[in-house]
């Protein structure tokens, strides 16, 4: 059997280090055994998927040194490799399940489902679909279709017994069918959900091993059932441990930058970041910390993945990156890397139109522009407090700005301006005082060029990371306070 694995990112945000980690293990698992690794874009969530995010994910994975044998950019004979281009295929398979009696049309209105949910919550019952439309008569269905009533397609799920399956790392897993919802397979707009598209594609693309994050374990019963319904061979499942923050909670951008673009912008070497991801739950036989991708390929054995949640610790990554810089790069190579990274003409040309107005000597460029090539700035809570806001409002200004900025898809000056202005207006604060703490957080001082321009030059990831750092400096936002702030934020006009 040819080993075929895949990474199946959804293009709904920044390229996540967790995606790179799972991609790395898939690639190494397949290639170390002469197999193939492919990349499939899972963009069935049309509202949240963007071409910008897809491009950023592909670019970031390539930057790290990963490559795939088949994918939307490189082609292959099992394509198309973008789910939005495969809708007809999924519809056909959904029909097949209906015909075989394994799936049914569900005409329940959103109101009915809301009420059902509310009742289930009130009565502390398990949440999930109650089977209301599971046994509608043929006449009833025909009548409703005739009347053009919208419907979704749901899969049937046994109500009793257990789903048992084997995980390559975890052994036998069993999950009660009662916990498994009658999953929607096809939405009212005819688009598939993740579950249907994922299973159909894994089958048609001849994936032999599904290696993915442990957050998908609970979905495995639905997938296994679909393989059975279709009469297809089930691939081998392997659920990798989730990456964790230093405090062992699930890796989250509130506590740790998660976007690969941030690490790129910070000046981590792709080899070092990839090396560090290879250390997530896995080790070389001799336990050495520093190794290349080729070395990992030579020594790879998936059974050496340990399940105790791997901690993604930026300090350790920095230490490893330092080793790579010192031990693997000649001065010549380091100079090349610095130029490729940011010490180049493009950076200067972007900044000069602003800097020129403030320069008297050429050497002024260094103090004027150093914050643009720096990482996290050495500012203090007092620096931020000088903006004159009292503590709670200061945090609110920074957090609300951050949330609004996180929603921007096209990171451009005008969009950044609109985002910040809308928050300032909603909070009824004049723009100038509103921007004061942002100046400190982003540029380290209030005398730099406009903070919107600074953010545009710095890029989304570094700008957001500096805002998060500023919030942390002020003591951060605890869970309770966060909830309150989220509510207040939603109520802003
Ligand atoms: N599209 C899913 C994700 O974004 C893929 C999960 C899987 O590998 O099955 O993680």
Share of helix among residues? 40-55%
The H-and-E topology, N to C, reads as: EHEHHEHHEEEEHEHEHHHHHHHHHHHHHH
Query: Per DSSP, what share of the residues sits in E-state strands of 2 or more residues?
Result: 5-15%
Distance between the termini: 58 Å
Q: DSSP helix count?
A: 21
Low-pLDDT regions: none
Largest sheet: 3 strands, antiparallel
Oligomer: single chain
The distinct ligands, each listed once, are:
glutamic acid
Question: Which class do the helix and strand fractions yield?
Answer: mainly alpha
User: How large is the radius of gyration?
Assistant: 26 Å
Average pLDDT across residues?
95
Strand order of the largest sheet: 3-4-7
Instruction: Characterize the overall form.
Output: globular
Total beta-strand segments: 9
Short description:
The protein has 493 residues and is mainly alpha-helical.
Which labels suit this protein?
8% strand, mainly alpha, globular
Protein described:
The chain has 493 residues and is mainly α. It is built from 21 helices and nine strands. A three-stranded antiparallel beta sheet has the order 3-4-7. Strand 8, helix 7 and strand 9 form a beta-alpha-beta unit. The longest helix is centred in the last third of the chain and has 16 residues. The radius of gyration is 26 Å and the shape is globular. It starts with a strand and ends with a helix. Bound molecules: glutamic acid. Glutamic acid binds next to helix 6. The site of glutamic acid (GLU) has 8 residues, from helix 6.
């Amino acid at each position: 059997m040819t080993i075929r694995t895949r990474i199946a990112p959804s293009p709904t945000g920044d390229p996540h280090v967790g995606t790179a980690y799972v991609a790395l293990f898939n690639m190494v698992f397949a290639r170390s055994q002469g197999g193939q690794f492919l990349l499939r874009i899972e963009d069935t969530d049309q509202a949240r998927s963007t071409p910008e995010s897809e491009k950023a994910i592909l670019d970031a994975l390539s930057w790290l040194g990963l490559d795939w044998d088949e994918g939307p950019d490189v082609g292959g004979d099992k394509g198309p490799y973008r789910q939005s281009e495969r809708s007809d295929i999924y519809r056909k398979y959904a029909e097949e399940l209906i015909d075989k009696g394994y799936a049914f049309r569900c005409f329940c209105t959103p109101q009915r489902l809301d009420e059902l949910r509310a009742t289930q919550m009130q009565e502390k019952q398990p949440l999930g679909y109650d089977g209301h439309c599971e046994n509608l008569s043929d006449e009833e269905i025909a009548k409703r279709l005739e009347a053009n009533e919208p419907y979704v397609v749901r899969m049937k799920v046994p109500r009793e017994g257990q789903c048992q399956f084997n995980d390559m790392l975890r052994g036998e897993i069993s999950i009660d069918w009662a916990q498994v919802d009658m999953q929607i397979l096809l939405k009212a707009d005819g688009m598939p959900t993740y579950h249907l598209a994922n299973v159909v594609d894994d089958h048609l693309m001849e994936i032999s091993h599904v290696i993915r994050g442990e957050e998908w374990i609970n979905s495995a019963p639905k997938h296994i059932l679909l393989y059975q319904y279709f009469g297809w061979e089930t691939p081998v499942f392997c659920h990798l441990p989730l990456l964790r923050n230093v405090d062992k909670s699930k890796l989250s951008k509130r506590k740790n930058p998660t976007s690969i673009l941030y690490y790129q912008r910070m000046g981590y070497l792709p080899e070092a970041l990839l090396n560090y991801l290879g250390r997530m739950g896995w080790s070389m036989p001799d336990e050495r910390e520093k190794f290349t991708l080729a070395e990992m390929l030579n020594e790879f054995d998936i059974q050496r993945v340990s399940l105790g949640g791997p901690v993604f610790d930026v300090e350790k990554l920095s230490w490893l990156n330092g080793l790579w810089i010192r031990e693997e790069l000649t001065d010549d190579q380091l100079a090349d890397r610095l130029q490729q990274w940011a010490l180049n003409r493009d950076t200067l040309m972007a900044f000069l139109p602003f800097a020129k107005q403030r320069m008297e000597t050429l050497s002024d460029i260094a103090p004027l522009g150093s914050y643009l090539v720096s990482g996290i700035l050495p500012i203090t809570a007092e620096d931020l407090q000088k903006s004159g806001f009292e503590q709670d409002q200061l945090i609110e200004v920074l957090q609300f700005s951050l949330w609004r900025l996180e929603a921007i898809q096209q990171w451009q000056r005008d969009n950044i301006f609109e985002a910040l202005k809308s928050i300032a207006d909603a909070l009824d604060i004049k723009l100038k005082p509103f921007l004061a703490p942002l100046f400190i957080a982003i540029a380290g001082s209030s005398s730099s060029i406009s903070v919107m321009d600074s953010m545009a030059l710095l890029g989304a990831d570094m700008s957001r990371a500096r805002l998060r750092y500023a919030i942390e400096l002020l003591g951060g936002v605890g869970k309770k306070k966060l909830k309150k702030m989220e509510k207040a934020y939603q109520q802003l006009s």
